[in-house]
Amino acid sequence: MLLPLADHILFLLLGIVLPVILLVTGNRRRKGTPIRWSEKMKVGLYYSNGLLLYGMAAAVVVTWLLTGRPLTEIGLGWGKLPYDLTAVLLLVGFLVLYLLDLYYEAGSPASREETRQEFKKLGFLPVNAYQFLHFLFLALAAGVGEEIVYRGFMINYLSGLFGDTGWAVVVVLLGPAIAFGVGHIYQGWRAVGKIIAMAVLFGFFLLRTNTLWPLILIHTAVDVLGGLLSWYLQGREE
Q1: pTM of the model as a whole
Q2: 206 exposed, middle or buried (CB, 10 Å; 0-12, 13-18, 19+)?
Q3: What are phi and psi of 56, to 5 degrees?
Q4: How many CA atoms are closer than 13 Å to the CA of 168, on its beta-carbon side?
Q5: Nearest-CA neighbor of 184 among 142, 220, 213, 233?
Q6: Confidence of residue 236 (pLDDT cuts 50, 70, 90)
Q7: DSSP readout, 93-146?
Q8: Model confidence over 194-208: pLDDT tens digits?
Q9: Residue 175: in which H helix or E strand, if any?
């Protein structure tokens, strides 16, 4: 399929350049002196990163509209009803595994302390109600922006280049998942592995259903729960 030049530029910037920058800066941050995050710095980060994510999604949407393509091509529609049963069951399976992992991270005093220390090391997660309310802006921006960019756009782009059958589907699913995962290197490689696995599963769901809405909802909910857990564990120190 012949793709518009704008798609190639967007993929170069969002799928290659940005992940490399995030990988390098994330590694430096992990190895450098920990930042002492003030409340003002945290709230500023929530809005600056949130606006960046919305901007990335807007670039994709505007490109699609200017080239005369329907937004349903990038999953902004209800998709193929009824939804593919395998895709739905895998998504349900992800939710079950996520809840089990959440229990593993907070189900005992020892695991809660370990998770609290990890959150404390990250530094920017909310520790009180005021911070959490502002954090919600970032959680929604991540749910909307990252799904439109890393699932809706990138999977459509790679499917246009390689197709979405046979071995091509491996490239279509893994490429965006890796680009998405390495952007979270600041959380550590273990977290990156989980994020890549989640991204592959989300990509499979999109390929089989052609809708992003359930993914946006789940992605946002996962981030909100992460913020709540941080508030619960770290707020007890306040």
Answers
A1: 0.93
A2: buried
A3: -60, -45
A4: 13
A5: 142
A6: low
A7: HHHHHHHHHHHHHHSSHHHHHHHHHHHHHH--S--SHHHHHHHHHHHHHHHHHH
A8: 999 999 999 999 999
A9: helix 168-182
Mean per-residue pLDDT, 218-226: 96
Of 52-61, 162-171, 221-230, minimum mean pLDDT range: 162-171
CB 207 within 8 A of CB 104: no
Instruction: Work out the pLDDT band at 189, boundaries 50, 70, 90.
Output: confident
The one-letter amino acid at 154: M
Q: Are 120 and 234 within 8 A, CB to CB?
A: yes
Is 187 strand, coil or helix? helix
Does the CA dihedral 186-190-191-194 come out positive or negative? Answer: positive
Check if the beta carbon of residue 9 is closer than 8 Å to that of residue 67.
no
